[in-house]
Specification:
By secondary structure, the chain is α+β, with helices and mostly antiparallel strands. The strands form two sheets. Strands 1, 2, 3, 4, 5, 8, 9 and 10 form an eight-stranded mixed β-sheet that branches. It has a two-stranded antiparallel ribbon with strand order 6-7. A hairpin with a 5-residue loop joins strand 1 and strand 2. The chain contains five helices and ten strands; from the N terminus they run αββββαββαββββαα. It is elongated, with a radius of gyration of 28 Å. Helix content is 32%, strand content 30%. It has two domains: 33 residues; 158 residues, Nucleoside Triphosphate Pyrophosphohydrolase, CATH 3.90.79. Helix 4 runs antiparallel to helix 5.
Length: 229
């Protein structure tokens, strides 16, 4: 009798297992469809973020090679910094980067057209056609798109997103040159606490910079400018 009940239990377990196995494809499809429309997102209102931009501003020689980096010394922090700042209302980020370089250093700067810039930005439709473009990185020719984004807390419950560009200062390169800037009309050097502005050789600039993040920016920009595609 016990053997009979044991057999029945075994058949019941086997039957349940068979039903579960048969249901697996349907479960897989249901889970896949549910996950298909789920994204890992964090939404911030306009009270919770601020956009900023800056430029790693190089002095290039006649061949187009980067030679020096423009740094500003912030007296209250006693720190050498790259130029950056918040975007004004209605201003585009590229304009912000150029404006901040001038306001903090007194140097005129332009966005540098990078010969080979890795980017995930798609080509304009007139160049790419109507075909869907990949989300993978590609090498853009002569591009002035941002080469890096940084994020950090700013204030209480606020996030600052900083878009970084590669810039070129409008000062001709001379090998024995030691360039510095005095206060320029229209700049905010004195009001923002910048007491010394200098163009440093790249290796020296990396040593002078106070923050690891700024050193990463300079090294990354130099790598993009000097590495063949």
């Amino acid at each position: 009798m016990s053997s009979l009940f044991g057999d029945r239990r075994a058949y019941t377990v086997l039957g349940a297992a068979a039903v579960a196995i048969a249901a697996l494809p349907a479960i897989y499809v249901a889970v896949k469809n549910k996950l298909k429309y789920r994204r890992v997102e964090k939404h911030l209102t306009s009270r919770e973020f601020v956009l900023a931009a800056g430029a790693v501003a190089f002095q290039f020689d006649a061949s187009g090679a980067p030679k020096r980096v423009l740094l500003a010394h912030h007296a209250p922090l006693d720190a050498w910094l790259l130029s950056k700042g918040r975007k004004d209302e209605g201003e585009d980020l590229a304009t912000t980067a150029i404006r901040e370089v001038f306001e903090e250093t007194g140097y005129l700067c332009r966005l540098h057209s990078v010969p080979h810039l890795p980017t995930c930005a798609p080509l304009p439709a007139e160049l790419a056609g109507m075909d869907c473009q990949s989300h993978s990185a590609r090498i853009a020719s002569n591009s002035s798109e941002p080469f890096m984004i940084a994020s950090r807390p700013c204030g209480v419950g606020m996030l600052k997103l900083i878009f970084w560009y590669i810039g070129a200062v409008d000062v001709p390169y001379e090998e024995d040159q030691t360039s510095s800037s005095t206060h320029q009309p229209g700049s905010h050097q004195l009001a923002e606490g910048f007491d010394e502005i200098r163009l440093f050789d790249i290796d020296e600039a990396i040593k002078k910079l106070a923050f690891d993040g700024d050193r990463v920016l300079v090294r990354t920009a130099v790598g993009i400018l000097t590495t063949p595609p």
